[in-house]
Amino acid sequence: MKPIHLKSILVGLFMVSCPSLLHAEKRPKKPNIIFILVDDLGYADVGFNGSKWFETPTMDALAKQSLVLENAYMYPTCSPSRTAFFTGKQSFRTGVYTVPVLETGTDQENIFSRWTVEKKHTLFSVPLAEAGYQAIHLGKWHIVGPDPLHELHMKFPLKEKLTQPQPGDFSWVAAHKSKAIQEYYPEGRGFVKNVGGTYRGDPALEAGGYKSETMGYHAPFSNPFIEPKPTDSWLTDRLTDEALEFMEEHKDSSFFVNLHYYAVHRPVTSRSQTLMDKYMGKEGDAVTGQGLGPRRKEMAAYATMVESVDQNLQRILDFLDAEGLRQNSVIILTSDNGYNGGQSSNDLMRGSKGYIYEGGIRVPALINWPGQVEPRRSQVPITVLDYYPTFLELAGVDNYTGPLDGHSLTSLFKKDDRKLQKRNIYWHLASQYKHGTCSVIRSGPYKLIQFLASGELELYDLAQDPLESDNLVTKEPLLTKRLLADLVHWRQSNAVPLPPNAALKY
């Protein structure tokens, strides 16, 4: 029998008196990250940004404990926003300018969009997996095309826009579950699990689509990447169920939950009759136009979908609190573009989804991390491109060498960052949807739009004119000249491609 040394006895007594140290090695050294992307949720569709009609009590309470980003920007449509989010690159680098099926015009007016993000573009999930994160993707994926292998062998630029199968056509499913195409799905790109992600941008895959009985949101779900369960009822609930199960399974390690709700994207359908009755009996908001007009019933149904997302956020917060994970979890909540016209309204901003104006690209956004993020509202403009480098920094990844177009937001966690405040933000839309092709620069409070086919310019002071109603080009010629020079220099230095009919050289 070996002698017991005094040092061993003292160490044992110390560990017993400090039981928390017994589990120190099991604690994740890196924070959990929960990224919640709501589809088509407008800037003013939440109470913490002033809505008096939509009810989002969980978001509003969380916002008071969070960094709320007043000037958070996406692209005008989901495909470039999601591509930029996953790759950290401007959409022109991946060739994704809008949802392919939404493009209008000819190959002379457009650089028709890609659908599939090529493997040469590394998604943030890959370096995070290498850093030890267990990551799940839930909901809308939309960065793979209906026929990716054929698409990637096509000659670009395309002569015609890409198309997608009609609702009820499931002939693509077998191929998409094959090893070759799974390389372009979450499990082939750093995630350990995919629930519900397909090529499609809405959940209504069944025959009838938006006019079907379930509309993709009510069970039974027609999504071939969601295994049916007897408890299925509402898609948003089911995706949250899966997120909670994953967090429970991986609570002893660092996890990344990439929760991209299909809600509140069309088709609009009521969550329940009780909620529908509540909103139909509620007075509309004359300031924003929410709950008013001939589409009031559609807005009410949309409101039930917004409230459903809010209720599911509460389920996530309750789980984190119950498991003691809240302090070590970063929660980011935002939207992929502005609200879809007709579903909602915001008379305080110009435009909606599809437009480069504020209503189409400015979105609600908050970052919550108890003790690490100073709760406040910040006016510093940020962009979807900033999330990738933020994730890397949170994960402690300091050796990533791939090109990134954004900046980490961690410097904003405690106070505003002057460098971020003073930088320029750029957009480039080389295909047409709601308006012509254009390039855009936001510098300070000013936003300059250059339409590529004509060279026409629009300049707005967003601080004074969020409706973008007063074009300052003729009133501010020196400012216009300076911003245009910056925009042209950005295009030149980045070899940004222009459509064939562009009236510009650079």
Topology:
Elements: H1 6-17, E1 32-38, H2 57-64, E2 67-69, E3 72-73, H3 78-87, H4 91-94, H5 125-130, E4 134-139, H6 148-152, H7 173-176, H8 179-182, E5 193-195, H9 235-249, E6 255-261, H10 273-280, H11 296-322, E7 329-335, H12 358-361, E8 362-363, E9 365-368, E10 376-378, E11 382-383, H13 387-394, H14 418-422, E12 424-429, E13 438-443, E14 446-451, E15 457-461, H15 477-493
Parallel strand pairs: 1-6, 1-7, 2-10, 3-11, 4-5, 4-6
Antiparallel strand pairs: 2-9, 3-8, 7-9, 12-13, 13-14, 14-15
Helix pairs in contact: 9-11, 10-11
Label this structure with key terms.
506 residues, single chain, 15 strands, 27% helix, four-stranded antiparallel sheet, alpha/beta, globular
Summarize the structure.
This protein has 506 residues and is α/β, with parallel strands linked by helices.
